[in-house]
Amino acid sequence: MEQDRRQSGTYRFNSISFYLNGKARSLDLPPGITTLDLLTKQLHLYGTKCSCNEGDCGACTVVIAYPDEDNIVYKAINSCLYPAAKLHGKHLITIEGLGTPQNLHPIQKELLEYHGTQCGYCTPGFVMSLFALFASITHPDHESIMAALEGNLCRCTGYQSISQAAAELSQKHDPASIVPDFCRRVEPKLFNFKQKAGEIERTSSSRYLIEHYLQPENLDELKAQLAKHPDAKLIAGGTDIMVQVNIQRQNFSQLIDLGEIAELKQIKRQGDGIHIGAAVTYSQVMDSDIIKHDLPSLVKLCRLIASTQIRNFGTLAGNIANASPIGDSLPLLLVYQTKLLLSSQQEERIIELQDFFWAYRETALSAAEFIREIIIPLPPQDAFIKTLKTAKRKSVDISSLASACRINPDGKAMLALGGIAATPVLSKVFTREFSPSADWAALAKKVAAEFSPLSDVRGSAAYRTQMIINHILQYREAYHG
Ligand SMILES: Cc1cc2nc3c(=O)[nH]c(=O)nc-3n(C[C@H](O)[C@H](O)[C@H](O)COP(=O)(O)OP(=O)(O)OC[C@H]3O[C@@H](n4cnc5c(N)ncnc54)[C@H](O)[C@@H]3O)c2cc1C
Ligand code: FES
Ligand code: FES
After folding, report:
1. Same domain, 218 and 276
2. Model pLDDT for residues 432-445, shown as the tens digit of each residue
3. What is the CATH number of the domain that holds 71?
């Protein structure tokens, strides 16, 4: 019955306008279709590859260009998770736009020169990641190259030749040869893009997991849409939601996208601390001069999350609202004594982050309410604040234990842990028993005894207990310098 209804239902399509490899396009899209499916299934462009369909391999990497203040930025993203509706007003650059077999792009030439490709399946993804890097940094160093490539997997070539090709290119390339002319021609048009994405209704015989995809343009529209559809699911970047759609085949009758609302993309310093809007991505946090200056530990933490591609559209607010006990930002945000500004059409309220998590993936958010801002009070200048993540791989891996420690100059201390309980938690023992002259090893054992971690694929209970001790001992080393 349900299936019959959906196979012949009326769907709200998204009508979007964007640029694809230099050419203006206007399309009516099935609701929630990913950029990868748009490219391969609707536009029959097969250069962008699909392998995992969940953000892990980078084979589907494409680049989006859009205005960020006075600049046009070029960002690599995983097209398998990026809803195509988000392309409205942006420039999508795919491998088809960079070079031809007769006239290779400088990145492709260098990969060829250094034997940086074998079967070639991963290669378009690597080329696009490097394109975003070289379009943003003229002569990237080794660290930037490795960071740009951490979200790309290759099962046959080996990373040595690929990174060597990138290093060589960084030394010798002509910066003007990286960004094609068609990109430069489109750039001014992106600044002037005013047209609103439209929604149209159409009877469809197709079956979609997402039936309605709404894109409010501003906060008032967002509140009104949520008030009208209180059961709708919010989407910011989509790096959690779209995995549920692609892999778990989860159905969402209504997604409301707050990730493109300009008012939610701001980072501001105010009297009560740093305000981070709900649509601010990890990359924006890492690039923000305010955050670099006032909350340097947050920049270091973001660097440990996912990959460059995911960080380019995943948000800090999404990590909080997702309320996973292994959300990597949560321990640090807890010791920062973060508050959340929650908003709905009826009211605005501020809540302490530690009161936000009620139970496993259960939060204080009520229907039609959303996180509007993350507010981080400025810690004292000499406070010791550090965060650690234990995972099997350096990048693109979920942690088995994440923690954060804060010791104020007056000796008041906090330790937060993720991955050991149904929600991220603060240790009462650590706060009660810490003193600058404490026996850290004995305290570490007491803190470990305070919790009963679960065993799962990421680590046994005994392993996690040992990790709690190890993290605290690492904080001791860092604290005593
Ligand atoms: C390959 C890969 C690697 C990853 N690696 C890591 C990692 O290392 N560490 C880690 O912690 N996470 C990781 N993640 C998970 C994910 O990227 C993060 O949780 C991210 O912060 C989610 O943000 P988003 O904007 O994409 O959220 P979305 O997917 O858009 O939303 C996530 C949830 O939050 C809700 N939501 C979003 N915004 C709001 C809001 N403003 N108000 C109320 N509800 C809201 C949505 O309804 C949804 O339930 C990874 C994901 C992938 C695919
Ligand atoms: S297909 Fe693997 S990251 Fe998209
Ligand atoms: S060249 Fe085969 S997967 Fe990379």
Report:
1. no
2. 999 989 999 999 99
3. 3.10.20.30
